[in-house]
Amino acid sequence: MKKAVFVALYLSSMNLLWSQSQKLDDLKINEIQVIGSHNSYKKAILPEVYNYLSKKDSMNFLPRIQYEHIPIPEQLDLGLRNLEIDVYADSKGGKYAHPKILDLVKTTRPFDPEGKMKKPGFKMIHITDIDYQTWYYTLEDCLKDLRKWSDAHPDHNPVFITLEPKDGQANRFGTEPEHYTSKLFDDLDNELKTYLGKDKIITPDEIKGSYKTLNEAVLNKNWPKVKDAKGKFVFVLDNNSENRDLYAKDHPSLKGRIIFTNSKPGSPESAILLMNEPQKDSSTIEDLVKKGYIVRTRADADTMEARNEDYSRFEKAKKSGAQIITTDYYYPSRLFKSGYRISFDNGTYERMNPVNSK
């Protein structure tokens, strides 16, 4: 009996997802609203590591990163259509192969038993040496899985992926990330093309078309329809300073680039914007969405909304029309007591945009 009920619920859910998808087909990809995950590759910090660090956490920082995710293909199966990926450059290999916290904390759980972190290439980590538990050690493996999932679901609606190139100063253990260069950004583009496939990616050049600039194309709403973007991915660089400018250098309107940039509205490269504070910026986001921009915002951050079961930020995000809303809680937390869970009213993660699809 229980099995029959489960099957019925599963089929009902699949029918709902199919029905919702059909309604979106004739809308442009800037006329929908999707929910996705934040730091999508992240596993929970090991309990023994968390306990050790909590004794030294005078700033009460640890609770802000006390979240986790299910495997990325399972997130996509659930219906999420946005992912976030952090990438550290490691051109020589081995830079992040041994998290330094393991010199201080005893654990029986091996890190990187296959030695993937020792090889050159882009690595996927949240915070080096501390919050290092990940579903993918390398960007290559993640992209291969995305390709595999996409090929198995060729009619999936477009998936937006926020990609953050991480570098910066040395951490408390003395680990200084490798700093990005023009060549490393070329390598990053090539990695996306090699392991996911350019045929799977909507590029800035495609959106620019015959317009003078990418921004002009966006203001003329030159986005493809959902039905013409099935099986595709859209990447946006989560950086608004030096790395963004370095990525765009010598690529006017991002000509030849694979990733969109979080560029100032009105600039030639501007198309997709990251605005994380919908409660403060709701009216600004709504105005930008009406103009033709795609905007990413957040339903929650630092576990605060989940701990307080506070949906006010999510309600503002929905109302703003931001096309992409990220959360850590498409499922309630298993790490602390809370019923907080994010989805649209019908239990799905995609819908018509309330601001510009009317």
Structural class: alpha/beta
- Report how far apart the termini are: 43 Å
Proportion of residues in helical segments: 25-40%
Which word captures the global form?
A: globular
Query: Care to count the β-strands?
Result: 9
**What do the pLDDT scores average to?**
94
- Which percent range describes the beta-strand content? 5-15%
The Rg value, from CA coordinates, equals: 20 Å
| Strand adjacency order, main sheet | 6-7-8-1-9
**What's the order of the H and E elements?**
HEHHEHEHHHEHEEHEHHEE
- Main sheet, how many strands, which sense, barrel? 5 strands, mixed
Uncertain regions spanning at least 5 consecutive residues: 5-10
Number of helices: 11
Short description:
The model is unreliable at about 5-10 (pLDDT under 50).
Question: How would you describe what is shown here?
Answer:
By secondary structure, the protein is α/β, with parallel strands linked by helices. Helix content is 32%, strand content 12%. The chain contains 11 helices and 9 strands. It has helices at 2-24, 47-54, 72-78, 139-152, 182-197, 204-208, 214-219, 242-248, 278-291, 304-308, 312-320, and strands at residues 32-37, 82-88, 159-166, 233-237, 260-261, 272-274, 294-298, 324-327, 350-352. Helix 9 links the parallel strand 6 (272-274) and strand 7. It is globular. Residues 5-10 have low confidence and may be disordered.
